[in-house]
Amino acid sequence: MQDKIGFIGLGAMGGALLEGLLAGGVEPERIVASDTLETKLREAAEKHGLKAMPDVRSVAEAARVIFVAVKPQDMKTLLKEIAPVMKDGQVVVSVAAGVSIHDIEKRFDREVGVIRVMPNTPCLVGEGAMAASGGKYVSDDDLHMVVSWLETLGIVRTVPEKLMDAVTGVSGSGPAYVYLMIEALADGGVLNGLPRAMALELAAQTVLGAARMVMETGEHPAVLREMVTSPGGTTAQALFTLEDNGFPAAVQKAVSAAAQKSKELGK
Ligand SMILES: NC(=O)C1=CN([C@@H]2O[C@H](COP(=O)(O)OP(=O)(O)OC[C@H]3O[C@@H](n4cnc5c(N)ncnc54)[C@H](OP(=O)(O)O)[C@@H]3O)[C@@H](O)[C@H]2O)C=CC1
Ligand SMILES: O=C(O)[C@@H]1CCC=N1
């Protein structure tokens, strides 16, 4: 029989990872899950046919690999709760921003493997951007297994743990900045007379198309930007306005602010 896979925390990110793994072919019979919110747990159990567990210890007892997707501030309490039943060879996959592998390992007096992952919500549609780092007790086989599951939800880069705060600033929190950009783009369209639904559709497709151009042509964004920018034309005027209003600096400052907050969450 295949190992069970546990989920603790079925909020925005835990739910997205769960749905992504199921869509990627993991059988629901392998999943055992727990969330403090009973309705959320019951809904997930009914929707996906997974096994709802009465508490987190039951998840830790039943599963060999346990995805933990609770808030960073709840990690200490959660790990304390499951520590007494954790065994050598189990694997905890943590997505908590800022919480280090060492901080998780030290809660157990067993050699529990820890994999720290920074995913993002587009995992829900198979377009996640993720980074992963493995701790000292995790075997290469287990790391490869978890990475291969995650690869069904998007791209996964294995990175040294010290880069995780920067990853959080770019791709973990990144979808939110892009949504803000899409909203602003659409609002700009409405300001200039477009019907709202059409403005939103054009804005979202523009972001999707531009991202695919970067991924599929392999060209630097500056080259692609020049392709759009006709001399003396509309784009040059818009780019000048964005630069003049500090758009590139604002985005870089946002990434640094998120990375800094990630460091603070880990303290
Ligand atoms: N949202 C995102 O895009 C991303 C989030 N992350 C990380 O994912 C983690 C979860 O974030 P997010 O999904 O946004 O947060 P949510 O608050 O949406 O989800 C966390 C869930 O875990 C539940 N929970 C808390 N403590 C326990 C416990 N002891 N046992 C079982 N369930 C528990 C919460 O219940 P309750 O509400 O009752 O506390 C909640 O339902 C965080 O650590 C975050 O850093 C990482 C990358 C991206
Ligand atoms: O906002 C947060 O703290 C989490 C971590 C990355 C994305 N969402």
Overview of the molecule:
This is Pyrroline-5-carboxylate reductase. NADP(+) binds at residues 8-13, 69-72. Its main location: cytoplasm. Pfam families: F420_oxidored, P5CR_dimer. GO terms for molecular function: pyrroline-5-carboxylate reductase activity. This protein is of the alpha/beta class. It has 2 domains: 5-164, NAD(P)-binding Rossmann-like Domain (Rossmann fold, 3-Layer(aba) Sandwich), CATH 3.40.50; 174-265, Orthogonal Bundle (ProC C-terminal domain-like fold), CATH 1.10.3730.10. Helix content is 53%, strand content 13%. It has 12 helices and 8 strands. Strands 3-2-1-4-5-6-7-8 form an 8-stranded mixed β-sheet, sandwiched between helices. Helix 7 packs across helix 12 and helix 8 (174-191) packs across helix 9. The structure holds NADPH dihydro-nicotinamide-adenine-dinucleotide phosphate and (2S)-3,4-dihydro-2H-pyrrole-2-carboxylic acid. Residues 97, 168, 172-173 line the site of (2S)-3,4-dihydro-2H-pyrrole-2-carboxylic acid (A1CAB).
